[in-house]
Structures are given as C-alpha cells and as structure tokens.
Amino acid sequence: MEVREVNISVKKINEMIKGENYRKNIDELKALIEEDYNNVYKTLDGNIMVGNLLTLLILLKPFHEFEEEFTSEFAINLDDVNSWSLYFDKIIYHFIYTDSEKVDDLRKLLYEMVSELTEFASTNVLLQSGTSVSLYEMNDIISRVPEVRRNLFYDKDDIGDEFNFEKIIDMYKNNNKELIENIKSDPEYNSYRTLINSGAGINVNQFGEVFSMVGFKSNMFGDVIPSLMDTSYARGLKKPSDFYIDATDARRAIVTVKDQVRKSGYTTRKMVILTIDSKLDNNVEDCGSKHYLTQYMKDETTLNRYMDRYYIDSNGNEQYIDPRKDNSNLIGKHLRLRSPVTCALDHGRVCKKCYGKFLSVINRKAKGIGTIAALNLTEPMTQKLLSTKHIQMTVIENFKWDPKFSNYMHIDGYNIIPKDKDLKIAIHNDDIVMDEFKDSHRYSTQKFIIIDEDNGKEYEIKSPTRLHVPDKNIKNMNKMFNEKKDRYEYKTSDLNAGHLFDIIVKSKGIVDPLLELKNMLEYNSILDTYEGNYHALIQRAVELCIESGVNLPSVHLEVIFRELIFLNGGMKDRVKYKDPNFNPNIEVIEVTDAILKSEDPTKGIVFERISEQLDTDSKNDLFTKAGKSEFNKFFDIDLLEGTSELTDEAKEYINAEIYHNALKAISESGQMK
After folding, report:
1. CA-CA distance, 216 to 200, in Å (whole number)?
2. 38, 170, 198, 268: least buried by Cβ within 10 Å?
3. What is the pLDDT of residues 486-526, one digit of tens each?
4. DSSP state, residue 503
5. Could you state, in order of their start, the residue ranges of all structural domains in the chain?
6. 595 closest CA partner among 521, 535, 654
7. Is the whole-model pTM more than 0.85?
C-alpha cells in the first residue's frame, strides 16, 4: 500500500477493512512507525496522520470480522476522547441489537482491539514521545499562540473587584478553559494537545491549577478559605499565606484518605455479600409486574441513566427507551419504569423486562447482576474517595436567595451588609443554633426577618446556607432581646462588627455526594427520612452519582436497593407485585441489617455478628430461615437437621475457630438434633 494513495473517505475505509487488505494495511502502517517514530505525525493525502489511520483501522476491527459496511454514523474524531467513548457505545448497541449471539465474539474483539493498541503504543510510541509534558514546550506554544501568555499569567487584577465566590471561581475556571482551547489551536503539533485530547494524560482541573490559577482552597472542616491563591504552581506560590493554605488543604486530603481507606473496603465487602444472590433469570422474559418505579427525567444527563428500559406511557402502553434513538421528548416527564425493585420474581431473581433489553443480553451468562451492580458502584466510589486530587477540588454551589434579599442586602466577600445601615432585622431565639465545639462563629441561623419601618412590613428571609453571627456582635445582641416577641431586634449601626452575618462557604467537592450516597446505604437514620418512599430514594441516589461523576446506570442502583426493601417484613411477597392492588407495608433498612435479615442463614454467618444471629430470641432468628444462597456451597451444614461437617471450601473461607464456636453454641441451645 502506497501511503500517498490513501484517501480517507467512507468508501476508501471500507476498501481498507475488507478481506486480506485489512491486516496488510495495518502491518504496513506499523512498519512505517517502527522505521521512524516521526512517521506517526506524517500527514497522508487523505489529511490524516499515519498514527491516526492505524488507530482507526484497529478500532474498525468489528466491521472487518463481521463483514459489515462502515458508515458515517460510526465516524470517530480521533482527537476527542469523548468521540471514542461514543463510538464504542454505538458499535456495542449496533452489533448486539443486530444479532444478540454476537455478544461473546464482540467482547473478544474489543479485548483484542485494546490490547493491540496498548502493546504497539507502549513499545513504539510512548518510549519515544514520553508520558509527560515540558515547560520548554510551553514557551514554544506561546511564541505561536500569544494568547496563551495572558492565560498563564491570569491573576487577581484580571478578576477586579468582584466579591462573589461563585463568580470568581467561574472567572478563573473560564480562563483555564480558554488556555486549553488556545493550546489546542496551536497550528503545530504539541504534546499538551495530545494529552488533553486523550482524556487520560491530564486532569483538566489539575492542569488549571498548575498553569492558570490555583484559586480557592478549603480548611480541615471543608470551609472555603476566603483568600484567593491568584497564582499557579508553575509560577510558584507568592505569599506566606499561599503556603499555609495549600498545606492545610493537603493535610485535609491526607486525613480524609486515611479515614476512608479502612471504610471503603468494608463497604465493598458488605455490598457484595448483600447482593450476591441477585440473579438475572434468563428463562423469564416478563414477570408480569403491575407495579412501577416512578422517576423524573430532569434533563438529558438524568435520562441517559435510564436508557434501555421499559416504561408505561399515559395511555397504559409499554414503551422502550432505545439508546440508539432520540428520546429528548421524555425530558421533563415522570416515567413509570419496569424495575428490579418491583420485579415480581422471588428468591433474588429478576426478569429480563425489569432489568433491561440490552443489559439482559450482555449479562445473560454472568447472571450475577447483584455482584455486577455492587462492583460498578463501589469501585469508582472507592477510587474517588481515596483520591486526594478529588478531595482537594473546591466546588461551591450557586446560592439562590429570596428576591427581597437583594433589595435590602449585598454580599461583600464573606460578609452580609445591609444597603441601609439603619435597617432593622430580627432573629427568633429558636432559630439560633450554637455549636459548642467551635472556638469562633459558634452562633448561626438559617433565617432572619427584615423589618421595613417605612412600610411597616416584615419579610422572613430563608438563607441557602448557614449565616454565622460575628463574634464581636454577640455582646451587643444580648442587650437587644425582645422578651415579648422572643427574638433579637437590632440595626447594623448598633453592632461592633459593622455587618450582620458571616457566610462560611462549604466546598461541595466530588467526594461529598459519594459520602452522602455511602451514608444513605449504611445508616437507618437517613433511610428513615424517606419513610419507605423508594421512588424518592433512588431518584436521590441517581442525582448523587451524577453530581460525583460516577457514570452508573440507574438499574444497578435499583438492583442494590431492592435488597434493602422489605415488603410486609420480608421478601416472599414480591410475587404479589403481579396484583395491581397489592399495597404492602414497605420498610427500607441499611445494608448490615438487610444482610442479617436475609432469607438464607449462611449469608449472615459469613458476614459478622454470629452470636447475635445464634440467639433464638433475636429478630434475626437463624433457625427459621429456609432460603438458598451462593454461600451454601461453602457449608455442608444444615442448621435445622443438625449436620456438622465442614467442606474444604468452607475451611478456606471462614475461620475454623469461629465455626467451632458456632456449632458449640447451636448444640448448647438445644437446636442440634
């Protein structure tokens, strides 16, 4: 194949991937790169580089193997990692929907494609180009793209007199985006652009801190420190306070990681034990459930979490959310979905209809959809919770104030100041909260009253964040208490601090939504607030995954929450979901309690709290359970029949001493025959 003759049209691509030419073309492109590494960037007549053409041909392997025509529908922008991700989604949907029997062959091809790209790049590309970037190269970029210099030296002078935290963060993040776009616009090749486009070499937020601006950081309590670090790590920290703030934030990240290391592994173990018996039943196409999970499709991002699902429309007809089609008409609607939560199969089984058409094909052999769901949630959760770079990210939610607030008040940095210093406000005694563990800002409130003496009206203002009373104002306030109205009444001119409140802004980083989701699964006190409303519970869980950047389809969360939901005190009544009039008493309990309350005794035994389970008076009475579990294979013991042999697998899985003590306790309790 002559390099000059390559014309990268759809027609030419199809010629290149057909028959024996396919492997021959790939080998010739590899030979060019092996001969001279710089050929990777050599542009061919079809306006495509040798390296890109090689990558493209390898990615088109499924079209070659299945002898299908490549169309523009599957076109890839090789400079955009998101385009790669979309391409993989498209070919998986295409080939599996065309012929579901191709799923195993496609899985093998995907593995071969990734392996071939990885092996060749590791041997012939990365050793030459390196895996990092050079500051000297940044100087070269500046000489070609002068706008980059302005982005690199962005500081407080560019921000001006803006005092709003959210706006300041938006300003320096926008500068970071401009810097990246300017680097990508470089007319010549640069390694920064390659790594940025790959999505793997450079974290965009970290890139901004290194080259654009560090911005705000948080203290040990997650409060945003009101001192802008208006420099970058490449330029160097400028003030002593910069070093202190950066060290404080780093310490917070290290402490958080240390605390989460132990907890994250324990959470994963619990989740796997909880869901190990959740199975896809390939023999049941439709369980016939007449109960549904109602979810609100807030936006496109939310809708994407519910692709490949069946729902009931307003006419009572069943519809399918096809991921290959435009479903934007569903945005803004509440959908009644077929769901694992309301599947009418028992013993942990889920039918294909409730699980999803596409996923039922993908996981038809694995069947263990509970383990798949648990790992899909806990693995990214663990990675993000243990990553200091995620913990150190400062994210501030936009505050939405009552419109009347802006009529009477303005915000200057951390301070709330009335536009008229003689404006009178009031705070009810019951609305003030004291935090005795704090040395400063111990008193706070989340609402106050504006008293407009000109029109004689009072306006209650609810704050989107906690408002802290300045320490200097405490003594003044005590003198201004109105006993008849049980509230404090005063003007700004009466106060020592000269302003009404301090706002202590919390950084809501990527890990915070994950911690909320983790706590939701592990604490009954949180689950109880939903009062059995699993619709709202799962909707919130999906929102938290979106906020944290965990790309998890809702169906996996539904499989997990299914094991936490008990109907009339147990699991057996799930079969009654076929009855549209079935109205069970619903209880949602945390993971540990759900494991101990499971139908099979061995699931609890391999977990913990053995003594509690062996207590016949306990709510988790071990001797009335008759379910089956994957853990049964580790035991050759029937607690009801009294057999007391232990298999070799069980000896490896559980501690022999614990097992011995368990048998002894059973014997002493009179349950062993």
Report:
1. 25
2. 38
3. 998 888 787 777 788 888 777 766 677 888 898 899 999 88
4. E
5. 3-129, 140-215, 279-388+510-592, 403-503, 600-668
6. 521
7. no
